[in-house]
Amino acid sequence: MGLVLPTTQIVINMNTILVTGGGGYIGSILVRLLLEKGYNVKCLDRFFFGIETVSELLNNNNFQVIRDDIRWFNPKILKDVDCVMDLASLSNDPSSELDPSKTYDINFLGRVRVANLSKEYSVKKYILASSCSIYGAQTETANENSIPNPLTVYAKSNLLAEKEILPLADENFCVTVLRQATVYGLSSRMRFDLAINAMVLNVFKSKKLKLMRDGTQWRPFVHIKDTSNAFIEVVETVDEKVNGQVFNVGSNEQNIQIKELPDIIRNIISTDFEIEWYGDPDMRSYRVDFSKIANIIGFKPEFTPKDGVKEIVDALAANKVTDSIKTKTVDWYKHLLESQKLVNDISINSMII
What we know:
Strand content: 15-25%
CATH superfamily of the domain at 14-185 and 221-253 and 285-303 and 333-352: NAD(P)-binding Rossmann-like Domain
Number of helices: 11
Distance between the termini: 16 Å
Helix content: 25-40%
Radius of gyration: 19 Å
Number of strands: 13
CATH topology of the domain at 14-185 and 221-253 and 285-303 and 333-352: Rossmann fold
Shape: globular
């Protein structure tokens, strides 16, 4: 159970927060941080990866689990909710390509439904979890005003959701979009299919580091706790600064070429390893400017890729985290698709735990 602080420490009267996807990679960290700050948290999730991602929180009186789907949940759960943080989605590029229609159904239409219902039920703030992947391929450093160039179903569905949801903003309904950099770091719903996390696991297990060709592609990175804190900082910022706004979430210092990651890992892991190149040259390459979020709400990441590498290595060495089919999102979704658990659109029975 997380430390619960007095609700008087919560600013601008935001007491109850609904986190969709609260059992996911980022969501399961975010709900813990919210509880530590004294918020009442509702967690809406299908829990494709298991309820154990939040199991130790179930005895916290400020935490409620609603096991349901953003496409058909009963909107009455939005009553008395002050803020919605909308993270539910089929995550990452390979997973989204498995069934593009399902990706659009959830990542676009599902989140538009959440936003519209939030406004209808007088929720004060809505925050959409988007992605810097919408920049796709850029020759210049991209900022929030750059023309997007989404190359994948995942990126395209994020951009469609942004375009549909941002116009809902008005003086009574604050809408903010957070375009997150590529995330790394430990989570109770661990993912070893993200660049830094995957490389660390491969080095730890086989002393090989798999690197996608040709290595010159740029990516922005952000630690999982930092991006989670960005959501909280938006909640705790007055509406006038964030309403109708898009923010890139990360830091200029963590724009990194993929070929630089082996050296970062080598500086932390005291073992030799081989680099194993794979795939065709990656067309996705983008550097991102994160000045806006720093200047407007004072967001500044605390963690670096070195911190992320060290915590993952330490957790693997202590057997506090292990890899399985559930830690590789695309593999687990393939399993669910084959077993019909993901493609079945018949509503599961809503369960409040």
